[in-house]
Amino acid sequence: MGITRDPPGWVSTKCLKIWSRKRYGRLPNRVDGYFRAVHNDLRRDTRRDESRDLAASWAGFSGRTGAEARDDSENHMAELIISGPAGRIEARYTPATVEKAPIALVLHPHPKIGGTMQDPITITLFEMFARNGFATLRFNFRGVGRSQGQFDQGVAELSDAAYVLDHLESLNESPSQVWVAGVSFGAYLGLQLLMRRPEIDGFIAVAPPANHYDLSFLAPCPASGIIIGGEKDIVAPAADIDRSLSKVRVQRGEVIERATILGANHFFQDKLKELEDVALEYLLRRMKEFEARKEDE
Q1: How do residues 212-252 score in pLDDT, each as one tens digit?
Q2: Is there a contact between 86 and 142 (Cβ–Cβ < 8 Å)?
């Protein structure tokens, strides 16, 4: 079932849970706790007179207008329908302009709290990669938008991500680099995908909920990347991310970097530009290192 409506405006946690269960069925305990944390973040960082535009909608927590978030007419973007494991997968794709260009896959936040590929953070990362010469693809997980299937607590969604990465690679023969990026739940799945796909060269993980999902599977982490969080994020607190990373080993020569955006909540409300600046600085630095290695070979 696709996500077609936002919940009512400024309502109680109980009402939001009733709304969610009517739409999606009873939530597993782990997802239910994640949902409660997100709702608390919404209540703490929004005002009552803004609730109509912001409540429980990822598109509202960016500082961008709706028109700015609707970028489908820009950057030579193509709408794709991919045949996936559970049926069709709805996607957006911006091709590269040169052969053997790098490729990037961007994964959106949790479907149960309104996450879609139209999430502003997802779009920001997508556009950042596309502007820097990557063939870039984002898509809706199963049960979201026009993608078929039902939510599977991240298990089948990981299968979707692997399938879409296969499709992206089929569109781009011999890419120079392969990157994965994700937001919240999408960051968690991106890190899981990293462990299963040795061709991935780098990652950008934004606010992975380390207090709801164990990151100990990064043992050892096979590629370098950056994890970006918000100082005021109560869904994925910086302390929980740091504590989880303290147990993670990396392969020799690889480094997981950390960055925290001051004053940012889980949605990076009014902090989207700062998030993009940090992600872009890291990406450009890694691309320069890659080019330097090529020249030395």
Answers
A1: 888 888 989 999 999 999 999 999 999 999 999 988 889 98
A2: yes
Residue-wise pLDDT for 189-218, tens only, equals 999 999 999 999 999 999 999 988 888 889
Longest dimension (CA), the chain: 61
Using the structure block, give the residue that is written with the tokens 């080993």: 249
Beta pairing partners, 105: 137, 180
SS3 letters for 201-225? Answer: CEEEEECCCCCCCCCCCCCCECCEE
Can you say whether the dihedral through the CA atoms of 64, 188, 212, 116 is positive or negative?
positive
Lowest mean pLDDT among 39-48, 66-75, 184-193: 66-75
As a three-state string, the secondary structure of the chain is CCCCCCCCCCCCHHHHHHHHHHHHCCCCHHHHHHHHHHHHHHHHHCCHHHHHHHCCCHHHCCCCCHHHHCCCCCCCCEEEEEEECCEEEEEEEECCCCCCCCEEEEECCCHHHCCCCCCHHHHHHHHHHHHCCCEEEEECCCCCCCCCCCCCCCHHHHHHHHHHHHHHHHHCCCCCCEEEEEECHHHHHHHHHHHHCCCCCEEEEECCCCCCCCCCCCCCECCEEEEEEECCCCCCCHHHHHHHHCCCCECCCCCEEEEEECCCCCCCCCCHHHHHHHHHHHHHHHHHHHHHHHHHC
What are 82's strand-pairing partners? 89
**pTM: predicted TM-score of the whole model, two decimal places:** 0.79
Q: Do 168 and 138 form a contact (C-beta atoms < 8 A)? A: no
